[in-house]
């Protein structure tokens, strides 16, 4: 799993080639699901078919009678603590006396063959007493978190617009299912090779459940086939380790696609009510907002998601008077947690829809209403936190508006929505243009001790200077391995750089989420390289290594402190860094069939400083694609707590045919507090693309369309009714 970057000759600011790129394109890259060890057996999980039920009894006898079965385990076999969790230990390793969502793990099986394991799991007899499930978050009584943000006293205005908005449950839809291999060790511990986003937090949850000290639970990052937040929580990690320790032999677990939908958290569905008040010339006076987030059965990262939704709940606009109420609740729906955009996505769709309504009410263009209220450096957020680095939102909007619009579709039917199926000749197709603006926090917030550790070693290998960078930061497809090597080459002037496989033998690097790794792990690698360079005493690298021998330094990097939001007023400097992205969407809509074709997406984003131009463009394309999915097609359909579409046949994600050409302008206004002045870039495009597309569809149809994803029937039925 070691990534060698000796063929990469470029440093910070250049499009260095990714060392895993060719292997991934050719299908030779080893993902976690490809792991194999002689003598291993296969694990499988029995999951609850009910969203809410008491467990009266579990009979494992039929499973043990299946030839080839090696072990069956229930909650009674958990060797240590029976509960774990990211922020609260509320999630059982295996259901104890009840199940709280459809798909909750109830029992484990290990067998010589994966099909045998699955068949044996199905043979376990569980006596459930089904009870009524709480599935409507508006009726839920158990809170995960309530966070208000209150400032100002004036809640009257000349122009007032209000609306209610809804965001469906989106899945991260990574292509590599949950998988890993647990190997028992001679010291009584366990080595786990796993696709994850956060090695150390996995370890810190696993060890107590396994009844082991942390040093006996060793994790190594296996190939990760996408993440987007869904791998922050445990899935099969603890189950594979339990079976391996029970049998004293390696155990591999790989979820199928359907099980994957039940095996990880999703984006919180949201119901939101907003009221905006402004002067007649469009200056915001106040915003009231009630944001309700369905956290599902367990806590996961819901408290942080609620905090983000509250603090960023009115967007990047100057508003003197605010009353935001953000609430997360427990239900018997699937658990929800981290997904790209993390609470800010849901709020962005609502406040941007409101800004369009306000523009209409004030007789202004969608761009002008946003320009008049845009934050800039020195502006205060609704939490009182002052934006102390460049935030050129008004300029970004001007730049976006100046991009030329794409030409009409013309006579080629392939350019029309549904045209490849000859469903239209353009007679009911209308074009629309819409805009979206988003603001996202970068790194962890609200006082979390957010840091990363890097170990850098310089030595002569075959007479040539060589540097090895070792961190626990998870490469989940975003290109972090490449960035670490670029930083080492830049700081030490050494061409040959190896980025060692991430594992828990080095200090924590935190999670590959919150667009934080370039900032925090990049900062740690930079600091460790600087320490190595200091040891050289000003000598050239080769001469220093010949004189001193190998030089190794380990450094931690922390960003500036943040603080919790006041629980009553929501005031506080809760965020490390803020990032802006703006989108313009052009769509063609078939009013009769409800089909939508996104003709073009244009984006302007300020990234502080570009570390790798090609990788950065990929992040903006990818974030925009996920925003398009949320706008038009992606939703986990949940009815009475049951998932109706756990497959890529019925859960639709954008393909290359759905993604339009993109026009982009990337701005560099360095943040003086960040390494190299960089600004995290992975999440902001996901925020602003969704409301831009929704606004464009509204412009084409004349419909209010207050829910995403927008379905064909939302358009077609309204057209027929009209």
TrEMBL record:
Aldehyde oxidase/xanthine dehydrogenase a/b hammerhead domain residues are: 26-132
The record's annotation in InterPro entries points to: Ald_Oxase/Xan_DH_a/b, Ald_Oxase/Xan_DH_a/b_sf, Ald_Oxase/xanthine_DH-like, AldOxase/xan_DH_MoCoBD1, AldOxase/xan_DH_MoCoBD2, AldOxase/xan_DH_Mopterin-bd_sf
Query: What's the short name of a Pfam family annotated to this entry?
Result: MoCoBD_1
Signal peptide positions (record): none
- Which SMART domains does its entry note? Ald_Xan_dh_C (SM01008)
Q: Where are the transmembrane segments?
A: none
Protein known as? Molybdopterin-dependent oxidoreductase
Organism equals Nonomuraea ferruginea
């Amino acid at each position: 799993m070691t990534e060698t970057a000796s063929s990469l000759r470029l440093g910070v600011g250049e499009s260095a080639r990714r060392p895993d790129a060719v292997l991934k394109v050719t299908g030779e890259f080893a993902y976690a699901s490809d792991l194999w060890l002689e003598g291993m057996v296969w694990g499988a999980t029995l999951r609850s078919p009910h969203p809410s039920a008491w467990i009266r009894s579990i009979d494992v006898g039929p499973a043990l009678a299946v030839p080839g079965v090696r072990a069956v385990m229930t909650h009674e076999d958990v060797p240590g603590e029976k509960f774990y969790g990211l922020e609260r230990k509320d999630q059982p390793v295996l259901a104890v006396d009840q199940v709280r969502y459809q798909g909750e793990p109830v029992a484990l099986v290990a067998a010589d063959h994966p099909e045998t394991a699955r068949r044996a799991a199905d043979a376990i007899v569980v006596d459930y007493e089904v009870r009524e499930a709480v599935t409507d978050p508006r009726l839920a009584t158990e809170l995960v978190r309530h966070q208000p943000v209150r400032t100002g006293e004036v809640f009257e205005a000349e122009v007032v617009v209000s609306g209610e908005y809804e965001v469906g449950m989106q899945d991260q839809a990574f292509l590599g299912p949950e998988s890993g291999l647990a190997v028992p060790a001679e010291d009584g511990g366990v080595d786990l090779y796993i696709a994850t986003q956060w090695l150390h937090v996995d370890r810190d949850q696993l060890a107590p459940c396994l009844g082991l000290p942390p040093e006996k639970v060793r994790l190594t990052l296996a190939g990760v086939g996408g993440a987007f937040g869904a791998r922050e929580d445990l899935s099969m990690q603890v189950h594979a380790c339990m079976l391996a320790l029970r049998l004293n032999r390696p155990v591999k677990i790989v979820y199928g696609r359907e099980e994957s939908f039940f095996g990880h958290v999703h984006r919180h569905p949201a119901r939101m009510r907003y009221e905006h008040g402004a002067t007649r010339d469009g200056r915001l006076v106040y915003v009231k907002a009630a944001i309700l987030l369905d956290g599902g059965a367990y806590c996961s990262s819901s408290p942080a998601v609620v905090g983000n939704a509250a603090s960023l709940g009115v967007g990047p606009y100057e508003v003197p008077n605010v009353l935001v109420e953000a609430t997360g609740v427990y239900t018997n729906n699937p658990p929800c947690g981290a997904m790209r955009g993390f609470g800010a996505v849901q709020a962005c769709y609502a406040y941007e829809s409101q800004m369009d309504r306000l523009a209409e009410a004030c007789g202004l263009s969608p761009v002008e209403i946003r320009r008049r209220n845009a934050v800039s450096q020195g502006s205060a957020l609704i939490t009182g936190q002052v934006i102390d680095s460049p935030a050129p939102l008004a300029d970004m909007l001007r730049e976006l508006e100046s991009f030329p619009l794409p030409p009409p579709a013309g006579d080629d039917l392939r350019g029309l929505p549904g045209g490849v199926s000859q469903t239209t000749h353009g007679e009911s197709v209308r074009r629309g243009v819409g805009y979206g603006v988003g603001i996202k926090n970068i790194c962890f917030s609200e006082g979390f001790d957010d840091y990363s550790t890097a170990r850098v070693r310089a030595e002569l290998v075959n007479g040539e200077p060589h540097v090895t960078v070792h961190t626990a930061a998870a490469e989940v497809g975003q290109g972090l391995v490449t960035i670490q090597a670029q930083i080492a080459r830049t700081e030490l002037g050494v061409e040959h750089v190896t980025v060692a496989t991430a594992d828990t033998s080095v200090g924590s690097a935190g999670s590959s989420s919150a667009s934080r790794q370039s900032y925090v792990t990049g900062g740690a690698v930079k600091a460790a390289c600087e320490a190595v360079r200091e040891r050289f005493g000003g000598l050239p690298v080769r001469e220093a290594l010949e004189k001193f021998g190998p030089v190794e330094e380990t450094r931690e990097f922390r960003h500036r402190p943040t603080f919790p939001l006041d629980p009553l007023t929501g005031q506080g400097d809760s965020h490390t860094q803020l990032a802006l992205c703006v989108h313009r969407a052009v769509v063609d809509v078939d009013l009769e069939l409800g089909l939508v074709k996104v003709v073009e997406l244009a984006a302007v984003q300020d990234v502080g400083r570009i570390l790798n131009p090609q990788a950065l463009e990929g992040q903006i394309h990818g974030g925009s694609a996920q925003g398009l999915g949320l706008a038009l097609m992606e939703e986990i359909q949940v009815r009475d707590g049951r998932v109706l579409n756990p497959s890529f046949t019925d859960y639709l994600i954008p393909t290359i045919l759905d993604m339009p050409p993109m026009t982009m302008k990337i701005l560099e206004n360095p943040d003086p507090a960040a390494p190299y002045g960089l600004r995290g870039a992975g999440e902001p495009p996901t925020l602003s693309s969704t409301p831009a597309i929704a606004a464009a569809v509204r412009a084409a149809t004349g419909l209010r369309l207050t829910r995403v994803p927008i379905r064909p029937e939302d358009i077609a039925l309204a057209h027929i009714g009209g």
